[in-house]
Structure formats: structure tokens, C-alpha cells
Amino acid sequence: MSGSPGVAVAFRTLGCKVNRVESESIAAELLGWGVSIAEESEADVVVINTCTVTAEADAKARKAVRHVLRLPHEPLVVVTGCLAAVDADAVRALGARVVVETDKTLVAARVADHLALAEPASPLVRAGSAAFRTRVSVKIQDGCDNFCTYCIVPYARGVPRGEPLAAVVAEVDSLVAAGVSEVVLTGINLGRYRDPASGADLADLIRAVATTGVTRLRLSSIEPPDLTPHLLAALAETPAACHHLHVPLQSGCDEVLSAMGRAYTTSRYREIVLASREALPGLTLTTDVIAGFPTETAAHHAETLAFADEIGFSKLHVFRYSVRPGTPAAELVQIEPSVRAERAAHLRELGEQQRAAFLEAHVGTQTEVLVETVDADSVTGTTRDYVRVTLVGTQLARGDVTRAEVVGVCDGLLLAR
Ligand code: SF4
Q1: How many Cα atoms occupy the beta-carbon half-sphere of 29 within 13 Å?
Q2: Residue 64 to residue 14: CA distance in whole angstroms
Q3: Reading across the β-sheet that carries 182-186, which strands appear in turn?
Q4: Best substitution site from 19, 189, 247 to test ligand 1's pocket, by max atoms within 8 Å of Cβ?
Q5: Taking a C-beta distance cutoff of 8 angstroms, is the pair 165, 198 a contact?
Q6: What angle do CA 78, 84, 89 make, to 5 degrees?
Q7: Cβ of 153 less than 6 Å from ligand 1
Q8: Tens digits of residue pLDDT in 24-46
Q9: CA nearest 11: which of 34, 43, 35, 33?
Q10: In testing the pocket of ligand 1, which one of 51, 82, 186, 188 has its CB within 8 Å of the most ligand atoms?
């Protein structure tokens, strides 16, 4: 590794999992330049990876930039991510020490340039830096062209594009060699994945990644219409693939789904869930739901509650609708914030009931646990259906995969032995 003693970079990552993965990649690249990762108070450069999914996300990003600009040692502030892409000028206007880099693949080089660093020595740093973890997200895709009417992402991240299949397989290979047991394939819209050279799709990629021998393979999220028989077949024939899918619902009412620009109805969603459950025995489903979309009436909201109840999710991620300027839904008549909050609370209550029932159903069963942390007092890990487990009375090491009997539930965690 090229030595650049004392040069340090800090990260602030806002928003989604894709941003986190991208920040990790930038950090790994910078480690290759000999830079260390530090707290903001000691960093020469602070990289802020922003989100613009809601007006609140914008405000948070601007606040983060202002906060770093006020640090007494005056680090350089490099701003990237979706807010930088959508409104670079507004971000630049926040201060003279702000550098905007809209292309995330250039952030590390931009920082290295500023710090006058020598060429990087080791391209294998990402695998090396991942070695202490058991689960790593690998970004395989960016962009979306669904243009859901509430969402700014297609404007911020542009059209879908996939990472080369061979590069993804090589990355997973090196992660497996470094001791990583679980890989989460991550992207903005995974169903849109295509290998740029061959046009190979997500099903082909899953089959190719499975050849690396990775113990567990998970998809971060998949849009309902993309759960085709073709994709389900690839998941079903891949022993590493976890039978856990995050399938955004957003609303359980057809009128609202149509106003949101979502490409399915509730009956289609139901059919997709039935087909998925048949293809992947024991399938666990998690989802996202938006409360208080502009056209949503009290009756529509009641339909969403009933539909979510019928499908039976293991986790409901509930979002209060938030106006995103520049999107079609921002032009509609808005629902009172207090009503949005009330509906979100109803959905969260249902989500908590479903979660409790889901966890209780594990008691008395045998489950596979991937051990993730081991300390003097406890051993914790994750099941294939993505539940945290505390193991008692066992002698295990991080990265071990074991079968354990679930004996109880405590504070949202399973207890097993
Ligand atoms: Fe946004 Fe819809 Fe694309 Fe998801 S599918 S990123 S909600 S436009």
C-alpha cells in the first residue's frame, strides 16, 4: 500500500443501502491510496454521500454539509450522491470549501488529487477490508426508469445500468476467499439488471454468483413484476439463495397504486406472492408501504391495512408520504401531515403485530444461524429469513453456520441454543 501517513478521510452516508455500499467502495479505494478512515474531527476531507428521496432528506444533507463546514480544523467537504446529482449548484452555494462530485466512481480520485497522493498499490483492498465481516453488500446495478410518481430517484440516478457480470462474480469470489459468508446483491432496481456486454439478466447473474461457493445469497429488494417464473426458478435452484424477499407494496389499493404509477394491481401482487411462496418454500416477505399518498382516502387506507394483513409480512417498513418537489405527485392536492402520521401509525401497529406473530412462529423450530458476533457474554447471528438470533450455551466462532433450536423471543431477537 502506498504510504501517506497522517492523511485521513471521514464519511457521512445518508439514505439508502446503495449509498452505504457506494461509500464503502470509495473508502476501500481510498485505503488503497494509503489514506486512513477517521472521525470527522480528525479528517482532512469529509465525504458526504447525500440522498434526495424526500424534502426531509434534502434538508438533512444540507444540514450535514453546514455542520462539517463549521468544524474548526476546516476540512475539505466533498459532496456526492443524489442531492449533488439533482441540484449541484445549490450544494456548491453552501460554502467555498464544498466540492461537488456527481460521479461517485470519481470521488476517490478527486480526494486523492486534492491530497496529492501517489498511485494506489493494492486493488484487493475491498476484499481485505471486508474480511472482518460475515455479510457484505455488492452493488450490481444503478438507476431506474419506472418513474413512480412520488419518487425522485430516476431523475437523480438516471437510467438503469448493470455492472459487468464477470466483475460481480470476481468480486464475490474475492469476498468468499476473504471469509465472507453472505453476499447481498444490491441495486436501485435489481430487476433491471443486465450485463452490459451480453444482456444476461438477474437470474443469470444469480446462477453465476452461486458458482463462487458463497454460503448465502440475498437480494436487497425486488419490484413485484420482476419476480418472474424465470427469476424464481433461478432462486429455487440455488441452494445459497435465501428464501427471503423484500417486495415493495407501497399501497394495498388499486386506485392509489395507479396514481403512484406502480406497474401492478393488488390481485397481481397476490398472484406473484403465491407463485413465489410455491417456488421458495418457507418464503419470508418484507415490504415497504407509503402512508398518506396525495390521492389516498380513508377507505383506500383501510384497503391497504386489510391487504397487508392478508399477505402477511414479516416486516412492514412504513414511510409517511413526503412531498418530493419535481415529481408528479408533488403537484397533487396533499393530505394533512397529521392524517399521514395517523395512517402511518396504524400501519406500524399492524407491522408490529405481524412481526410478533412471525417471531413467535419460530419458537420450537430448528433454524440455520450464521454467526456474526462473538463476545464474552453472547454469540449473535442471523437466520436465513433475516432475523437476529442470540445463541446461548454454544462455543462458536464468527462465520460459523450452525443449526439451533429456537427457545424464545426477547426484544425482537430470537433466543436459540
Ligand atoms: Fe423510485 Fe419506483 Fe424506481 Fe423504486 S421503482 S426507485 S420507487 S421510480
Answers
A1: 15
A2: 9
A3: 135-139, 182-186, 216-219
A4: 189
A5: yes
A6: 95
A7: yes
A8: 888 878 887 778 888 888 888 99
A9: 43
A10: 188
Question: DSSP assignment, residue 230?
Answer: H
Compute the distance from residue 142 Cα to the ligand 1 centre, in Å: 11
The label of the residue with cell 451480453 reads 198
How far is 165 from 170, CA to CA, in rounded Å? 9
189 lines ligand 1 (CB under 6 A): yes
**Amino acid at site 246:** H
The torsion region of residue 55 among left (phi > 0), alpha (psi -120 to 50) and beta comes to alpha
d(CA 288, CA 293): 13
Q: What is the pLDDT of residue 151?
A: 92
From 141, 146, 251, the mutation candidate for ligand 1 (largest count of ligand atoms within 8 A of CB) is 146
Ligand 1 in contact with 226 (CB < 6 A)?
no
| C-alpha 144 – ligand 1 centre gap (Å) | 6
Residue 250 alpha carbon, nearest atom of ligand 1: 7
The single residue listed with the C-alpha cell 398518506 is 292
Whether ligand 1 lies within 6 angstroms of the CB of 146 is answered as yes
Cβ(222)–Cβ(246) below 8 Å? yes
Q: Give this prediction's pTM.
A: 0.83
Q: What is the mean pLDDT of residues 91-116?
A: 82
Alpha carbon distance 124, 45 (integer Å): 23
383 sits in which H/E element: strand 379-383
- CA angle (43, 88, 55) in 5-degree steps: 95
What confidence tens digit (pLDDT) does each residue in 153-171 have? 898 888 999 999 999 999 9
Name the E strands within 225-311: 244-246, 284-291
Nearest partner of 313 among 228, 264, 407, 245, judged by Cα:
245
Nearest ligand 1 atom to alpha carbon 157: 6
Q: What is the pLDDT of residue 335?
A: 95
Q: Describe the crossing of helices 107-114 and 17-32 by its angle, rounded to 10 degrees.
A: 40
Question: How many angstroms is it from 147 CA to the middle of ligand 1?
Answer: 6
Helix, strand or coil for residue 407?
Answer: strand
82 lines ligand 1 (CB under 6 A): no
